[in-house]
Amino acid sequence: MIQNERLFLLKKGECNEKGAYVxxxxxxxxxxxxxxxxxxxxxxxxxxxLPLLVLFVVSRDYLGAGRRHYRFLLEGIEQLEVDLADRGxxxxxxxxxxxxxxxEFAADAALVVFDTGYTRLQRSWRKAAAAGxxxxxxxxxxxxxxxxxxxxxxxxxxxxxxxxxxxxxxxFRFMQPLKRQSAKIDSTALAGRADGLDSKAAEELLRFSxxxxxxxxxxxxxxxxxxxxLDAFITSGTLxxxxxxxxxxxKEGLSCMSPYLHYGQISALEIALRASEHPGPGCEAxxxxxxxxxxxxxxxxxxxxxYDSFEALPRxxxxxxxxxxxxxxxVLYDDAQLEEAKTHDPYWNAxxxxxxxxxxxxxxxxxxxxxxxxxxxxxxxxxxxxxLRLNDRYSLDGRxxxxxxxxxxxxxKHDRPWASRPVxxxxxxxxxxxxxxxxxxxxxxxxxxxxxx
Length: 453
Known about the structure:
Radius of gyration: 22 Å
CATH topology of the largest domain: Rossmann fold
Shape: globular
Largest sheet: 6 strands, mixed
Number of helices: 22
Number of domains: 3
Helix content: 40-55%
CATH superfamily of the largest domain: HUPs
Structural class: alpha/beta
Mean pLDDT: 96
Order of helices and strands: EEHEHEHEHEHHHHHHHHHHHHHHHHHH
Low-confidence stretches: none
Number of strands: 6
CATH class of the largest domain: Alpha Beta
CATH architecture of the largest domain: 3-Layer(aba) Sandwich
């Protein structure tokens, strides 16, 4: 079922009667399962008795992404091509400027379909690509959120509490399975004649042009691996214990879905439906993060044009941090000391090493990590930029609404004023004693050391 709220007409255009195919430019939703944009495009192709061509364009230096990120993406693309071929759908991989390449293939399309992008760059791509599609109408179909971003709210929300009140009544309508269709016309030969790349050739072409952030070996991209990890999360009992263990960095209590969601290699809707088959406190806590908290992050990026800068913070937080900018810091670290995890704090160092070596960081430690960067930087603006730069450079799910929101939260976004203290002002404070009191934090440090050997 594809709800009307998922459909957004970008350009009315005129029906291109000479169109040889329906074109789906896949960018955000990099999967064949539970992809509303793909199913909409396929349905329109079948209705017109035309083949469907799926186009994916790899942009060089996407928001500073490194080899680590491109390897994960291309591992997913390799699996995606197989999945689409099994359904008789042609897939074409290109490297270059997305709007220009999309416009080139749109010239021969009867209809062009985009999936929804949320960041500034993604949205500018879609605007330019739609403008370059001179004849064919252009439809955007949203598939990466359970409740579409515009439907959930028409404005930036203040907190999880405010967006929860809007999303919860809508879940019954949008938590619906999506039926997979069959292609009436096999289009794999059509893609083969368009001179595309395979994922390994693309990686070789990109190999020397990306920052030297080495790929990780503990996790691999692709829908098969995403579903394997989801199955393990559910069947191992981790979902059942999620409400108890999610915030404990010394426990393996997380789903590891974040990188796959970031690249669109698995659907949030499919995850939510699978988790809902196992009701209980763990499921409730998991759905709160998967739906409410995640959609709050996308709401922030979609409606706040300053989402990746200090200006995105609430006025009270900005003014309070700036008022305390001249407060004495007990210690200041330079960029290299932070990046190389050479601080006096073993817990922070472990979190930073986890990020640089594994491309991830436990969610609770990410909060502590960001707070300490604020404490160890000469100004709050410098701290914000450092945290965002490190997260985007090393995290597999960097350059993402969740990442932008996670960094901003450390500086007061989606939070409230607390008791005032030096440097932090009324921003929520965290310290090492809190970690020691709540968790076996020494065990976390040992686990990180072992994983980085």
